[in-house]
Design a protein that fits this description.
The protein is α/β, with parallel strands linked by helices. It has helices spanning about 5-10, 35-40, 90-95, 135-140, 140-145, 165-175, 180-185, 190-200, 205-215, 225-235, 260-270, 275-295, 305-325, 335-365, 370-375, 380-385, 390-410, 415-440, 445-455, 460-480, 485-509, and strands at about 15, 20-25, 30, 65, 100-105, 115-120, 125-130, 155-160. It is elongated.
């Protein structure tokens, strides 16, 4: 490291200025932030005559103004050649290089210091620190490599400092008896900055104290990503000689590869079995949001939760079918009100569970197998008409959501599956449609009707005609109690009566 000399600074016309520096109860000096420094520099008058800058009062009650800040006047190498009237020669003023600004900082007992450390930062800021050789040798591997007890050099320079303020504070921490106590009131971003400088300087006790702080304090928002990113980088570079792995246990686990899938299955099971309506709704919303984030992070690829979701779907389907069997028995009406209420509530619960799982599958565009399963529920659809509409209508919400998914392209079942879906579930949906509009708050009639119409229009033209003519007869009798598929009817009409005629005219020409 090259030795620093004041003469070199003078040759470069470097100005040493007084800026707000504070001394802590531990006895070391705190460098001002870059913003405070720039504010002080802006207050400087453009004339060459020096003037006094009054530092702002410190807001901290335990911080006092430093009485030993040194200032050094700018010297002129040849005063006889200086233009006495700078304003008369604007070209020379324009060619004058940008002046650097230097801060002088002392540590411990500045009058007994025997070594200088010069930090050269951005924007021409230079900080000269008066320190003690024995303190550096005791605390810093970086300085220990540069110095020895009998070394003749009295100054060391650290160029290109991108965080001068933290370098000054880290050197000051070498004078503290309890570094960890000093970090208690700091923020996570600032401690992370100190950690990086401590690593560079080889200041082990400060480095370990920063790690202890980061291990104990909560990480909020982007702090977690910044801390983990740096620690992982540090773990590789240092081969974990500082014991960083335990600290990263907060964000990583040594569990087996199938553990996340088992945990997800447990979470979904807890949600599906919950009987507390409000908590159930809230946790469904939370889990859905987190699964959506997980889907985005995997770039749309199939992940481990799909199998878990389908296993839960099968459990709910089996339970729903058993409940429908019980509710459709002739003697069900003779059972106690408590038994009937329990069965009806179970049907509503399982239907709501299936609807939630279907939403997740459609959102991830992996719901094709669910449509296949639902289209094959002939027995369930057969029991549907035997139950009161107030007990069964939530099941029709599942059918409606599948139609919406097909209409939006969220699920892409085969033609045979679409035909089976309409054959098995379209009539039960029409039977419950009036109730769905009034009893289901999230039911969106326009969206559902658009989905039904688009699904029908994906079938062969002959099947479109059969389904839409049957719908038309029902709609003319029931009106708004039946889905309004006029848009799909118009498309079918044009395909049947107008487009063939246009094609014939085109062939004639």
């Amino acid at each position: 490291m090259a030795e620093f000399s004041v003469g070199e600074l003078r040759a470069q016309h470097t100005r040493i200025r007084n800026v707000p520096i504070a001394v802590t109860p531990e006895g070391f000096w705190c460098c001002p932030s870059p913003a405070a420094l720039q504010k002080s520099l802006k207050n400087q008058a453009p004339q060459n005559r020096p003037h006094k800058v009054s530092p702002p009062n410190s807001k901290a009650s335990s911080v006092q103004r430093a009485p030993t800040i040194s200032s050094e006047k700018r010297t002129i190498s040849n005063p006889n050649t200086e233009n006495p009237n700078p304003s008369s020669n604007p070209s020379k003023v324009a060619e004058k290089p940008q002046q650097k600004h230097k801060i002088s900082v002392g540590f411990g007992q500045p009058e007994t210091s025997d070594f200088k450390v010069v930090l050269r930062g951005k924007d021409g800021i230079v900080v000269k620190m008066s320190v003690h050789r024995n303190v550096l040798l005791e605390n810093s591997n970086y300085f220990s490599e540069k110095l020895c007890e009998n070394s003749p050099i009295s100054c060391a320079e650290i160029p290109d400092c991108d965080d001068v303020e933290i370098y000054v504070e880290t050197v000051g921490l070498m004078y503290c008896k309890d570094v960890k106590h000093r970090l208690v009131k700091q923020s996570v971003p600032r401690v992370l900055r100190i950690l990086k400088v401590a690593e560079f300087l080889g200041f082990r006790s400060c480095f370990v104290s920063c790690l202890d702080y980061l291990e104990a304090v909560p990480w909020v928002g982007d702090e977690e990503e910044n801390v983990v990113s740096y620690l992982r980088h540090l773990q590789i570079d240092t081969k974990d000689c500082y014991g960083i792995s335990p600290l990263l246990r907060r964000v990583s686990s040594n569990m087996q590869n199938d553990a996340p899938n088992n945990t997800l299955a447990q979470i979904i099971e807890l949600v599906l079995k919950s009987s507390e309506d409000r908590a159930r709704r809230e946790m469904k919303s939370v889990v859905s949001k987190l699964l959506k984030e997980n889907s985005s992070s995997t770039n749309g690829s199939t992940d481990i939760c799909i199998e878990t979701l389908y296993k839960s779907c099968q459990v709910c389907l089996d339970s729903l079918l058993n409940l429908f069997r019980q509710a459709s028995e002739p003697e069900f009406g003779n059972k106690t009100a408590e038994v009937r209420d329990t069965t009806n509530r179970g049907i509503a619960l399982e239907a709501d569970n299936l609807l939630w799982l279907l939403e997740i599958l459609c959102d991830r565009h992996v719901g094709d197998d669910f449509v296949i399963k639902w289209s094959g529920q002939d027995e369930l659809a057969g029991h549907h008409a035997k139950l009161p509409i107030m007990s069964r209508h939530l099941v029709s919400c599942i059918t409606a959501r599948i139609f919406v998914g097909i209409g939006k392209g969220e699920v892409l079942p085969s033609k045979e599956t679409r035909q089976q879906l309409i054959h098995v579930w379209f009539q039960p949906l029409i039977d419950d449609y009036n109730w769905l509009q009034h009893a289901c708050r999230p039911f969106d009639r326009k969206v559902v009707e658009e989905g039904i119409g688009r699904t029908i229009l994906t079938l062969p033209l002959e099947e479109q005609q059969s389904i839409l003519l049957t719908w038309m007869g029902r709609f003319l009798k029931a009106g708004d109690a039946c889905p309004n598929l006029q848009r799909a009817f118009e498309v079918w009409w044009r395909r049947t009566f107008i487009r063939p005629y246009v094609e014939q005219e085109g062939n004639r020409n």
